[in-house]
Design a protein that fits this description.
With 391 residues, the protein is of the alpha/beta class. Helices cover 31% and strands 24% of the residues. The strands form three sheets. It has an eight-stranded mixed sheet, sandwiched between helices. Helix 4 packs across helix 9 and helix 7 packs across helix 9. The protein is globular, with a radius of gyration of 23 Å. The relative contact order is 0.13. About 2% of the residues have low confidence. The structure holds zinc ion.
């Protein structure tokens, strides 16, 4: 038994720790939270995304909360609107397994989530995080499991980070070509979860994946805007320009330049068949859907190709996150810079014939979990494989 003096000092120290209360930690890649208030009760706090002027929409938040008395129902208020405040927050005890909280209560200027935390620390985030280290691990593991896959550096980013990519091809003489990229908008972590499912399927033993690798050269870039993903910034509409409005003859972003160079070699080799760009849409979009190029820039063959692809996608992307069967066009009525959108650039460089689409996978849906995102990725990969096999 402890002598009484020691016992008392231990109790006093514990009380002092309790008084210091909750602590928000963001000093890790992709961390984002500016503390607006922490209640002395140790049960409630209010945050907003860390401001990063010029680095895109302030809609991404992702932080560790320490100093919790296990069993406490934590009340987390996030300031913001629209894209910043999902119906449900993502929660994790270990930073690896992510689950939704119950729906938050929306008020003017924010949303309040409550979640009982059975630990002294936890993570809360806008969505399931997927950072550069995760992407490196994903690609290394894909290459390890499939000798037909090789990891390479797409380029160095403007801030000097290595942008990893993977080439998957099981033949010296591919006749088809597929390009996939995700995370042109840094906050759209779900796009990389979809990309993960797609890569895992492409290197798998599924008969359609094995067949695809015998004909097709595939390139995948899981994170384009690595700088903002690691910074924890939103990226969308950043200065000097959005990654997905940078697909011109003279791109600002090195990732876009490097992607264009590889795509041009596929075009020159006569095997550029498909371009897939993976995103998360707006808060009101509850199902995944495709943005397609305007019909005015499609060749007659291109129109038929797109129709065939969408038909297969409707059959394969069945959910739980099921495809909205109606694609949307992003042309001149959508954005005056529509020609600098990646899939429109890719359509034009391919002579209007390849299938070039953006997949917007819904994030503001209780089904928008890491597993269901990955499932969409597998279903998209199978769609691509079936389409290319029918060419
Ligand atoms: Zn986007």
């Amino acid at each position: 038994m402890l002598p009484i003096a020691l016992f008392l000092s231990a109790v006093l120290a514990a009380d002092a720790a309790k008084e210091s209360g909750l602590k928000v930690v963001t000093d890790f890649p992709g961390g984002s939270a500016k503390v607006e208030s922490i209640d002395p009760s140790g049960k409630a706090l209010r945050i907003a995304p860390t401001p990063h002027p010029g680095k895109g929409w302030a809609c991404w938040w992702n932080f560790k909360l320490e100093g919790i008395t296990p069993g406490t129902e934590i009340s987390l208020t996030v300031s913001g609107s629209g894209f910043t405040i999902p119906d449900r927050a993502m929660f994790s005890l270990d930073g690896k397994t992510w689950v939704h909280t119950a729906p938050g209560v929306k008020t003017k200027g924010g949303v309040t989530y409550t979640h009982k935390v059975e630990g002294d620390a936890c993570r809360f985030a806008w969505g399931p995080p997927f950072g550069l280290d995760d992407a490196r691990e994903l690609l290394a593991s894909a290459a390890k499991s499939c000798p037909e896959a090789q990891v390479f550096e797409l380029c160095k980013s403007r801030e000097g980070k290595s942008v990893p990519a993977i080439r998957i091809c099981g033949t010296d003489k591919p006749t088809r070509g597929l390009w996939v990229n995700a995370r042109q908008h840094a906050w759209e972590a779900g796009g990389t979860w979809v990309c993960r499912g797609l890569i895992e399927w492409l290197v798998s033993d599924a008969p359609e994946a094995v067949a695809l690798r015998k004909t097709t050269e595939v390139f995948v870039v899981p994170i384009m805007d690595v700088d903002n993903v690691e910074r924890g910034a939103g990226g969308k509409n950043q200065t000097p320009q959005d990654h997905n409005r940078d697909w011109t003859a003279e791109p600002h972003w090195f990732e876009v330049r490097a992607a264009q160079a590889i795509i041009k070699t596929m075009v020159a080799a006569g095997r550029f068949d498909m371009f897939l760009d993976l995103h998360n849409p707006g808060p009101g979009d509850r199902s995944p859907f495709f943005f397609v190029a305007p019909a005015t820039i499609l060749s007659d063959a291109g129109k038929k190709n797109l129709e065939a692809f969408i038909k297969i996608a409707r059959q394969e992307i069945v959910g739980p996150l099921a495809l909205d069967p109606r694609p949307k066009e992003s042309g001149p009525n959508y954005d005056k810079n529509w020609k600098a959108i990646s899939k429109n650039w890719a359509t034009e460089i391919g002579g209007g014939t390849p299938v070039c689409v953006t997949l917007e996978t819904a994030w503001n849906n209780p089904k928008s979990t890491p597993d269901n995102y990955r499932r969409v990725g597998r279903e998209l990969a199978l769609t691509a494989a079936k389409y290319l096999a029918g060419k």
